[in-house]
């Protein structure tokens, strides 16, 4: 038994597969010692709310990464969908229509990304980088560069309400992650998506419509970003067209820390949950310790690099 454990610990793949869970335990233990406020229910609840928004975004990012791509446009799609939601609601269209409008706005960006990548054969990185710039400009133009309040009893209830100890935010994030996990592990669509990311030429030769798979994953990606925008507005109480670059970095790091490969063909949704918790816990602990905000992006950047190294070990 001891020998088996030793072999397992010397295996780089073990550390790559379990980095998020190991990191969560270590970081949680460190912050529990450094500050007495970390393990309070109020702080844990706030931490999980932040993690819920990140988890929805990370799940969106998971769909593009599993096909060997990446979605940089999340940084602009998120505020764009939030602006559409705010304008629709403040324009008197009502909450149901505003929710649909935000999700459709995010989905539209995903459709364009998918078509440009699949049909025009533009690299995922370049296509989504271009869309980041385009949608950043569109969000600023539509909003006039101004943030504005969105006051709604429904949003307040969404942000603060719960079913027993389970906040609505947690429930939404859990349902999204569970749905993605089941999709990848128990459906033909998930198998085709994984095959497309693993070896696109081989998948095409097997009869899998790889172009349609590419478009589909970016459509799902965009729709989930629209949902995350609604949660963000519910939590902050307003729409802000500013770039959300921190969300982009953390969504990528959450996916790769969780065990998914940047090279595609491997999905680990449950690991992504742990990855999102790791990054949220890290930033939460820094805030409690009153570490300067200037250092927080550095920490996230280091985690992104570490995640890329771990992905290499997995490959």
From TrEMBL:
<feature type="transmembrane region" description="Helical">
    <location>
        <begin position="168"/>
        <end position="194"/>
    </location>
</feature>
<dbReference type="InterPro" id="IPR001851">
    <property type="entry name" value="ABC_transp_permease"/>
</dbReference>
<feature type="transmembrane region" description="Helical">
    <location>
        <begin position="268"/>
        <end position="288"/>
    </location>
</feature>
<keyword id="KW-0472">Membrane</keyword>
<protein>
    <submittedName>
        <fullName>Ribose transport system permease protein</fullName>
    </submittedName>
</protein>
<keyword id="KW-1003">Cell membrane</keyword>
<dbReference type="Pfam" id="PF02653">
    <property type="entry name" value="BPD_transp_2"/>
</dbReference>
<feature type="transmembrane region" description="Helical">
    <location>
        <begin position="215"/>
        <end position="234"/>
    </location>
</feature>
<feature type="transmembrane region" description="Helical">
    <location>
        <begin position="294"/>
        <end position="313"/>
    </location>
</feature>
<dbReference type="GO" id="GO:0022857">
    <property type="term" value="F:transmembrane transporter activity"/>
</dbReference>
<keyword id="KW-1133">Transmembrane helix</keyword>
<keyword id="KW-0997">Cell inner membrane</keyword>
<keyword id="KW-0813">Transport</keyword>
<feature type="transmembrane region" description="Helical">
    <location>
        <begin position="125"/>
        <end position="148"/>
    </location>
</feature>
<feature type="transmembrane region" description="Helical">
    <location>
        <begin position="95"/>
        <end position="118"/>
    </location>
</feature>
<keyword id="KW-0812">Transmembrane</keyword>
<feature type="transmembrane region" description="Helical">
    <location>
        <begin position="246"/>
        <end position="263"/>
    </location>
</feature>
<dbReference type="GO" id="GO:0005886">
    <property type="term" value="C:plasma membrane"/>
</dbReference>
<feature type="transmembrane region" description="Helical">
    <location>
        <begin position="72"/>
        <end position="89"/>
    </location>
</feature>
<feature type="transmembrane region" description="Helical">
    <location>
        <begin position="21"/>
        <end position="41"/>
    </location>
</feature>
């Amino acid at each position: 038994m001891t020998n088996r454990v030793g072999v397992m610990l010397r295996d780089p793949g073990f550390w790559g597969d379990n980095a998020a869970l190991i990191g969560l335990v270590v970081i949680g233990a460190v912050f529990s010692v450094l500050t007495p406020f970390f393990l309070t229910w109020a702080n844990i609840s706030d931490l999980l709310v932040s993690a819920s928004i990140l988890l929805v975004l990370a799940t969106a990012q998971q769909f593009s990464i599993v096909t060997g791509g990446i979605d940089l446009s999340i940084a602009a799609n998120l505020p764009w969908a939030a602006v559409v939601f705010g304008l629709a609601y403040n324009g008197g269209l009502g909450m149901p229509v505003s929710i649909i409008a935000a999700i459709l706005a995010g989905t539209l960006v995903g459709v364009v990304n998918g078509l440009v990548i699949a049909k025009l054969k533009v690299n995922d990185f370049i296509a989504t980088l271009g869309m980041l710039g385009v949608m950043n400009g569109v969000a600023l133009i539509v909003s006039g560069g101004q943030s504005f309040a969105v006051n709604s009893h429904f949003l307040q209830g969404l942000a603060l309400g719960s079913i027993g100890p389970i906040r609505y935010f947690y429930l939404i994030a859990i349902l999204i992650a569970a749905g993605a996990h089941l999709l990848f592990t128990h459906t033909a669509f998930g198998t085709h998506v994984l095959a497309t990311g693993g070896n696109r030429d081989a998948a095409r030769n097997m009869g899998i419509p790889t172009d349609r798979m590419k478009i589909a994953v970016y459509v799902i990606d965009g729709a989930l970003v629209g949902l995350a925008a609604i949660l963000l507005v519910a939590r902050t109480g307003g729409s802000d067209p500013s770039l959300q670059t921190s969300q982009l970095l953390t969504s990528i790091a959450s996916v790769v820390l969780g065990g998914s490969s940047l090279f595609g063909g491997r999905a680990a949704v449950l690991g992504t949950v742990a990855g999102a918790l790791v990054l949220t816990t890290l930033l939460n602990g820094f805030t409690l310790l009153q570490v300067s905000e200037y250092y927080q992006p550095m920490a996230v950047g280091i985690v992104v690099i570490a995640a890329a190294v771990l992905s290499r070990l997995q490959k």
